[in-house]
Amino acid sequence: MSEVEVFPVPAEWAKRAHLDQAAYEAACRRVEADPTGFWTDVARRLDWMTFPTEIKDVSFNKEDFHIRWYGDGILNVSVNCLDRHLATRGDQTAIIWEADDPHISTKLTYKELHARVCRMANVLKAKGVRKGDRVTIYLPMIPDAAVAMLACARIGAVHSVVFGGFSPDSIAGRIQDCDSKLVITADEGLRGGKVVPLKLNVDEALKTCPGVTDVIVIRRTQAEVPMTAGRDHFYSDLKDSVSDRCDPEPMNAEDPLFILYTSGSTGKPKGVLHTTGGYLAWASYTHELVFDYRPGEVFWCTADVGWVTGHSYVVYGPLANAATTVIFEGVPNYPTSSRFWEVCDRHQVEIFYTAPTAIRALMREGDAPVKATSRKSIRLLGTVGEPINPEAWLWYHRVVGEERCPIVDTWWQTETGATLMSPLPGATALKPGSCTKPLPGVKPQLVDADGKVLEGAINGNLCLTDSWPGQMRTVYGDHQRFFDTYFSTYPGKYFTGDGARRDEDGYYWITGRVDDVINVSGHRLGTAEIESALVGHDGVAEAAVVGYPHEIKGQGIYCYVTLRTDVEPSDSIRADLRQWVRREIGPFAAPDVIQFAPGLPKTRSGKIMRRILRKIAEDDLSNLGDTSTLADPAVVDDLVKNRGHRR
Ligand code: ATP
Ligand code: MG
Q1: Nearest Cα to 225, choosing from 200, 208, 245?
Q2: Is 90 exceeded by the pLDDT of residue 15?
Q3: What is its EC class (predicted)?
């Protein structure tokens, strides 16, 4: 392997940070010595109606399996995100909205946001929504999406946000699964200049959802959409008949806050349920630490609120911390590939957080669209969603951040509520491609296939031996599935499904899903490792690697490679890539098949779906599995048509 470059903590970050290295280490020691004191302090960052005395009550064991945090505490999430800031920060901007059209942006202060949330809460109440009822939200990235989530939280309704890119079938499945009676949507959405027919999709979905009695429609484009009398209402017709004051519902810390379905990278999405107190404490704590956040700084997380990243780092974490949070309706490459950076300049974004898929896509377009912008306001960069290849990390660092901005590579899952492993900008030296170390209170462990605990520098299956407040509490409606999926593989531990390597400095490197590990002639190889090597080649924009049955080696290495826009596919570049991987990793890792792919199958959150690529590589075309979360099904047809020759 090539030498790993280490980026030390810049002195100014160590100085200004909430936690420098010594303080980080002290916090980790304190969790061990005085867990109750430590976790009580984490709870103190929230405003409680009744402060909890029961702090942590958890067992991962089958006999008495339960997870409770702050179990006798009473609070309301919307109060923590809004009301408590009004006295001192009522006129501060809470939300900057950047529309798909680059000429349109608006701002909402905390006072304005508070009034809008209360109004929508009252509208929901008037429609009969009560504490504990489920509400499905299917909206574009407009401030009303955050308003709708917070309005549910205010009255104790449980929201289920469905990403606006999902099809009618996927919406219907998610509505039926949690049995919502009310849907909040918009006439249409706009993404990259294209219209998304949200209301029409909902109409189609509701043909199989007889339980839905009301649909509230926000006007986004003003398009004419069919309205079913008695069921469908424009929000603009409802909002003026209610007050903009609404008493918050007192909620137990363990009352549900939301249900959210996972991305579907590995199979049918799971309805992850998060609760009120622990989730908010963890979202807020991690937002402050990982981004070294101070109230009023302009924070932009590009994730859609349809994903957990949008829940925790567009809405709940930032607003709980009195942030100015950016909500972006568009896409990275519209109208041009400079868009992200233009938005950063326009709104003086200080902290920018996005996904490797976006970074790789922009890197593919070269440096010029980045360099056309200033980006002087940016101090810190972040990434989440997939392992980031060192090559993409270095580009992000060098070109986007001009070597001035630390990068926080945050590893976490829908199930974990918020970040579990990440560098802290004032405490952790960076290694490109590593999510570095656990946050205080997080206890990762590597085990082998039989559950034997692995020590030292080694590869293994990533578990967590103890709980943290933001942990999911159940799979909605299927508690047995919750236990079976996460706690039965290695008894007494939470199994993440991810593989990881720990290096000699105790840094963690996520190697991909454990299911994606390839075994070539007895060598266990993480797909991320080979992909990183491929992307490290000048001609390659993106790569996905899977195994397929191979008579001699057990498994062969099948690589799908997307070349940069200015590179033509050829046999010579194929040979070159094979040599390249041999040199970077070792001869045993040399690809058996390289297929050039103009696009890769991705979930709608932008993650590569290796499960489908594996089926294509195995020639098992009748069995592609659940493709409902695929962003662009046409990509699969091309891959099938051009699938490579085995050797
Ligand atoms: P499903 O569980 O339905 O298959 P999913 O796992 O893609 O979908 P998410 O909860 O959105 O759904 O994603 C969590 C996963 O994303 C992690 O388990 C990990 O594999 C990957 N991931 C997230 N952040 C990082 C990161 N910083 N580095 C490496 N991998 C990451
Ligand atoms: Mg997952």
Answers
A1: 200
A2: yes
A3: ligase
pLDDT level of residue 609 (50, 70, 90 thresholds): very high
Measured in degrees and rounded to the nearest 5, phi and psi for residue 517 equal: -65, 140
What local confidence, expressed as pLDDT, does residue 646 receive? Answer: 53
Q: Which ligand is nearest to the CA of 266?
A: 1
Instruction: Cite the annotated binding site for CoA by residue number.
Output: 191-194, 309, 333, 521, 582
Q: If you take atom 6 of ligand 1, which residue's CA is the nearest one?
A: 265
Distances 378 to 336, 397, 403, 555 between C-alpha atoms, Å: 20, 12, 11, 45
Do residues 480 and 424 touch, judged by C-beta distance below 8 A?
no
Q: Which residue from 359, 386, 463, 508 has its CB within 8 A of the most atoms of ligand 1, so it is best to mutate? A: 386
ipTM over 0.85: yes
Tell me which DSSP letter residue 80 carries: I
Q: Find out whether the beta carbon of 382 lies less than 6 Å from any atom of ligand 1.
A: no
pLDDT tens digits, one per residue of 223-258: 999 999 999 999 999 999 999 999 999 999 999 999
Alpha carbon separation from 135 to 166, 175, 540 (Å, rounded): 17, 9, 43
pLDDT in tens, 116-127: 999 999 999 999
Q: Is 386 in the pocket of ligand 1 (CB under 6 A)?
A: yes
Helix axis angle for 35-43 and 21-33, nearest 10°, is 120
Q: What is the pLDDT of residue 416?
A: 98
Instruction: Mark residue 322 as left, alpha or beta (left: phi above 0; alpha: psi -120 to 50; beta: remaining).
Output: left
> Which residue has the least CA distance to atom 18 on ligand 1?
413
- Residue with token string 């058996």: 592
Query: Which residue has a Cα nearest atom 27 of ligand 1?
Result: 411
User: Residue positions in the annotated binding site?
Assistant: 191-194, 309, 333, 385-387, 409-414, 498, 513, 521, 524, 535, 537, 540, 582
Q: Is the CB of 411 under 6 A from ligand 1?
A: yes
Q: Which residue has the tokens 């303080």?
A: 23
Sheet holding 444-447, edge to edge: 453-454, 444-447, 458-464, 494-502, 508-513
Q: Is any ligand 1 atom within 6 A of the Cβ of residue 419?
A: no
Name the residue at shortest CA distance from atom 1 of ligand 1.
264
Residue 612, pLDDT score = 93
Q: Which ligand is nearest to the CA of 270?
A: 1
CA-to-CA separations, 609 to 74, 165, 355, in angstroms, rounded = 41, 17, 15
| Range scoring the smallest mean pLDDT among 36-40, 444-448, 453-457, 547-551 | 547-551
